[in-house]
Each structure stands twice: as structure tokens, then as C-alpha cells.
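We emphasize that the prediction below concerns an isolated chain of 241 residues; any contacts that depend on oligomerization or on bound cofactors are therefore not represented. The input was used exactly as deposited, without trimming of termini.
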Amino acid sequence: MYYIAKLFNAFFLPPGIFVIILFLAAIYSKKAKTLFFLSALLLWGISTKFVSNLLVYPLESGYKLDNISPQAVVVLGGGVNPHDVLKAMPDAFKREVYAILIAKKYNLPLVFSGGGRKINESANVRNDIKTITSVCGCKLTTYFETKSLNTYQNAEFSALLFKKLHLTKNIYLVTSAYHMKRALMMFRRFGFKVIPKPVGFYYNPNYKFLDILPHEGFLNISYKALHEYVGILYFKIKTLL
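Result of the prediction step, given as a C-alpha cell string:
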């Protein structure tokens, strides 16, 4: 029964159902058979653990550490739901909790970076941090950068905030593991010396047979990894122009 349920979920829920539709289109279509078939294989591939691991591993390993003594902890936002009890989205919540732990451990100020167009992320995360620290009895010095809309602006506006606060730009940087490579490039561009503190790793080398089946969780990981590669490429092109 367990395997029947797994097979049903794999092929009758997205993305598996769309893999089936594309394969059927490849069989019955008089035109574009190759396109439908390759699309089905591609969608299947990026929805498996094997391919998602292949994509995410280079992003989550091989970080360069600067030889510094950090003077602050910077944590990057990752989305909020203002209607929830704890406002930060799951990935972002891991970031802020880990940042609080590091700031408390080393007795350093905590700087949160994240703005928003319609919903101000910093204002919502301020509530999370206040809730966590008050319950745990942690006293932290906190600052909030409230204008950034992307990773480049996280670095840009954080640099301005550090200048305003007369803080040395030697930091622990906290963000999701898959996002760290791009974040490091941008923060170093704005003069920060960084010891990366990644959290929320997706790479998992432990395989089982069912991992060959398409799954929305692995598709989501592949999407995040591909988004990072596009962001890194865009940043490199931008710095050359």
C-alpha cells in the first residue's frame, strides 16, 4: 500500500501528471514529437533527487572564508507572511533563528536586511525576533535595513547602514545555503569581509529507489538552484559592463 500511494502521488499529482501528459503528447502528436519527449524527460529529471542534488551541491559547498574577527551578524530576509503567528517564511525563519543563535553566542549586534514593495519584511521580522528573544531571555542589539528588494540591494544598503552606525564591515553572513555563493559575491563587492554561516541545506546524498520518481519538493529545489545560477551569471555580466 505504501508503494502504491507513492506511485499515485508521483504520477497523478504535479509535476508527475505533467510528465505523463507530455509523454502522451509525444506519442500521439504528429508534429513536435521530439520537443514533447525532451520536455517530458527534462521535467522528470529536474523533479528527481538525483538532478536536484547535482544542481544544488556546487552552490552549497566550497565557500571562501575571509581571515577576520566578525564584528556583527548580518542575516538576509527571504519572504514573510504577515498573517502568520511567526511572520518569516520557512527558509527565512531558519535564517533568522540561526542568526539569533550566532549573535547571542558571540555577543554581536544582529543586522537584518530586507525590505519589500507592498509588505515591509523588516517590520514583520522585527516581531519574530522580539518574540523569540523575549521568550528565550536573550538580549541582543538589533538593527534593520528596510529598503532592499534583492540580494544586490541587501549588500548595497547594508553597507550604507554599517557606515551610518560606524560598524566595521567584518561580518558573519547568514542566509540559505543554496543562496550563499551569490550573497558572498555581492557583499564582498561592497567591501564586506565575510565568514559565511549557511543554513537550510538541501543537498542530501542518501538515495533510495523511489527517488527516481518525480516529486514537487525536488522540482522546487532545482528551481531555486537554477534561479541562483541565473542570478550569478547576471551579476558577473553586470560587473563586466
